[in-house]
Amino acid sequence: MKRLMTGLCLWAGILLCCGCQAKGSTAGPGESGEEQARTAGREAGDSGNEREQERARGRWDSQEEEEVQDSGSAAFGTPVSTQSGPAAESGEEQEADQEDEKLSEEVEGYLEKMTLEEKVAQLFIILPESLMKVDQVTAAGEMTRNSINQIPVGGFIYMAGNLVSADQVKTMLSNVQAYSLERTGLPMFLSVDEEGGTVTRISGKGKIDVPVIGDMAAVGQTNDPARAKKIGSDMGTYLAELGFNVDFAPVADVLSNPENAVVKSRSFGSDPKLVSDMSLALAEGLGEHGIISVFKHFPGHGATAGDTHAGYAFTDKTLDDLLQCELIPFQRCIEQKAGFIMVGHISLPNVIGDDTPASLSPVIINELLRDRMGYDGVVVTDALDMGAVTGQYSSAEAAVKVLEAGADLILMPQNFEEAYQGVIGAVQDGTLTAERIDESLRRILKVKLRYCSHGFAAAGENP
């Protein structure tokens, strides 16, 4: 445990911050209803960067690759190669490989000791109220310890009502980490939606003395990634001091539909290159303080008019439309080794052939994000208590389907107990395999063991 808390490396947050040159369940008002959504414009618009578009086309041109493709994703062609540079590895690369090997061995050691119930619990990030079964949590004492001992979930997400004062938050989160380490030897993801502007749980609430962070739309208008990085650093400073280690930011959505009210003030803008640069810069600033960034909402919420919080929201865009615009920031963050990507609940009938939300679609997660775009980091769903999911699926059905689709972390199911038992039952009856659960656990545990311990140290806490 002591070795865990000293950290396996000095990298902070996610790998994207290493060597990256900076050039950057949520709430938000929006329209709802299929009839409103279908009136929105569907054109990708001027991306403002032909070089980015050409690179994306080259990466995604499955027609030219058809001759050499005989397996893998039928929808998206061959995987993006992750190999580059000379065959001979440098000393630093060899050292990194050795570290990765040791880390993998440690992860396998955890998997061998964990029960099925413990493994499934680690797949959930939930409201603390969902575990303690109370109306509002503002402290962590024996009830929290007993609840974590019974179901050692992977993480908590905190809302504004949970956060009363700086000292209260520090004590609460420090206690939670102590209970988690005591129970499993693993830290918890302690997360928050802190984007700036209309979506914050701390900044601007008047309870904790931190800088007021404005809308990212205004930041994007400056076209200054250094400013985005400074904002990320400011947020990272107070989040780490309070004891958080995950921030569900930045919003990497390209505002390709100007009528979009869901991410209009939250997006850096309508230019994919600008959104890419600003998102990466903000994430770098967060990562300097040990805060893990979550790029959201894949494959891009900026083209829709509907609001997935309320119900069905879709885009008519084709795959070619997406690769020229919405997917560019996510491809960039994958190239920079992003640790977390959030998949939204939007529907893309012209891409997958039906109205399945992206978060529950194997075509979007397994075939597009993982196989085609080459992403092997942690995939977290958007909050599963949103209307786009609850209107069609029970909590158990949704939890099982997101795992079948390729997601790793299940965020805020409407009924946690039902979702948790549903996943356990799906493994027991063969709907999900034990190996599928382990696949996600390997990604999750690597992040926890490698990066989160440094985040806790940065926060000045040593439970």
Layout of SSEs?
Blueprint: H1 2-6, H2 34-37, H3 50-60, H4 62-65, H5 91-113, H6 116-121, E1 124-126, H7 128-132, H8 142-150, E2 155-158, H9 166-184, E3 189-192, H10 216-221, H11 225-242, E4 246-247, H12 272-287, E5 292-298, H13 319-323, H14 327-335, E6 340-343, H15 349-352, H16 362-372, E7 378-381, H17 387-390, H18 395-405, E8 410-411, H19 416-428, H20 434-458
Parallel strand pairs: 1-2, 1-8, 2-3, 3-4, 4-5, 5-6, 6-7
Textual characterization of the structure:
With 463 residues, the chain is α/β, with parallel strands linked by helices. It has 20 helices and eight strands. It has an eight-stranded parallel β-sheet, with helices on both faces. Strand 4 (246-247), helix 12 (272-287) and strand 5 (292-298) form a beta-alpha-beta unit. Helix 5 packs across helix 20, helix 11 runs parallel beside helix 12 (272-287) and helix 18 packs across helix 19 (416-428). The termini are close together.
- Strand-residue proportion: 5-15%
Number of strands: 8
- Helicity level: 40-55%
Structural class: alpha/beta
Mean of residue pLDDT values: 82
Uncertain ranges: 1-85, 455-463
Major beta sheet summary = 8 strands, parallel
| Order of adjacent strands in the largest pleated sheet | 7-6-5-4-3-2-1-8
Which word captures the global form? globular
Helix count, DSSP H or I runs of 4 or more residues: 20
What is the CA-based Rg, rounded?
21 Å
Q: Could you state the order of secondary-structure elements as H and E?
A: HHHHHHEHHEHEHHEHEHHEHHEHHEHH
Distance between the termini: 10 Å
